[in-house]
Write a structure and sequence with these properties.
By secondary structure, this protein is mostly helical. The protein has two domains: 16-60, no CATH class; 78-283, Rhomboid-like (Rhomboid-like fold, Up-down Bundle). It contains eleven helices and two strands; from the N terminus they run E-E-H-H-H-H-H-H-H-H-H-H-H. It has helices at 51-60, 78-96, 100-104, 108-111, 117-120, 130-151, 153-178, 189-205, 211-226, 232-251, 257-282; strands spanning 41-43, 48-50. The chain has a two-stranded antiparallel sheet. Helix 2 packs antiparallel against helix 6 and helix 8 (189-205) runs parallel beside helix 10 (232-251). The protein is elongated, with a radius of gyration of 28 Å.
Length: 287
């Protein structure tokens, strides 16, 4: 009688990386125990972890935030540099593109039909005065990175854009009062003054001396009345809105910082839209 002889046990396939099935890997992740190839390995305190476990752990880790609720980031002030870049590119286009300035600078009379001018004017500067651009960009870079780091990127961008918009709205309000409907406005000064107002509030909030920024605001306020062609109305509008938003961002308790920042930004935007609408209706622009 003969008995069947057992065959050799099948050899299990070699372990492969789940993300790269064509790569054999005998190294396993310390968290999920899956094979992980050299490209997907990340050093850990003991052994290695796969890139998926590292990403999952990072997503569950609360972001490091400043006392004002902004995400603490290292590296370049991306928003500040982007705003400066947009202003510089726009200035170059003012030199070479016919009609660029005329299409974007703010004139109260044209704002009702072309509302983008309320904001785009903040990215234009006097075409034949490069120091107008230079002074505003130096001022933006001197305070922008500080506020961007303190408030976080989206709060800082909201602060800048709403301050720019407030400058145009305040300029229009005075134009409606004195009949200057055809007086033009361009420059980032309204937005920059909004940043000045926010810096003043932040410095007071953290107990630091605000003498330097008060001096800058005072000097620029005087120059606005002494030098011809300076739109002090836009400076005033930006300063008021920047200080108001800065106060909300800086003084709201941590548990309600995000909600308060979103709410304050939305309310400010609604108010800055409502004022021109009411002024235009009051002066018969809507039929």
């Amino acid at each position: 009688m003969s008995y069947p002889q057992p065959g050799a046990a099948p050899t299990p396939p070699p372990p492969v990386c789940p993300r790269h099935p064509d790569r054999v890997s005998y190294v396993r992740c310390q968290r999920c125990n899956r094979p992980t190839c050299p490209e997907c390995q990340r050093p850990a305190a003991v052994g290695v972890q796969c890139v998926d476990c590292v990403r999952e752990a990072a997503a569950r880790t609360p972001a490091n935030r400043t006392i004002f609720g902004g995400v603490a980031r290292q590296g370049r002030p991306v928003v500040t540099l982007t705003l400066i870049g947009l202003c510089v590119v726009s200035y170059l286009l003012q030199q070479v593109a016919d009609g660029w300035t005329n299409a974007l600078y703010f004139v109260p009379y044209f704002g009702e039909q072309e509302p983008w001018r309320f904001l785009t004017a903040a990215f234009l500067h006097a075409p034949n005065q490069p120091f107008h651009l230079l002074f505003n960009m130096v001022a933006l870079y001197s305070v922008g990175p500080f506020l961007e780091q303190a408030f976080g990127r989206w709060r800082f961008l909201a602060l800048y854009l709403l301050s720019a918009l407030a400058g145009s709205v305040m300029f229009m309000a005075f134009a409606a009062a004195d009949g200057g409907w055809f007086t033009g406005l361009y420059g980032a000064s309204g937005a920059v003054f909004g940043l000045f107002g926010a810096v003043l509030v932040v410095l007071r909030r953290v107990g630091r001396s605000a003498g330097a920024i008060i001096g800058v605001i005072a000097i620029n306020a005087v120059l606005g009345f002494v030098l011809p062609g300076v739109a002090w109305q836009a400076h005033l509008g930006g300063l008021i809105v920047g200080a108001a938003l800065g106060a909300v961002f800086a003084y709201t308790p941590r548990a309600r910082q995000h909600l308060a920042a979103v709410g304050a930004s939305a309310i400010t935007l609604v108010a800055l839209v409502a004022v021109p609408v009411l002024l235009y209706a009051q002066h018969g622009f809507f039929g």
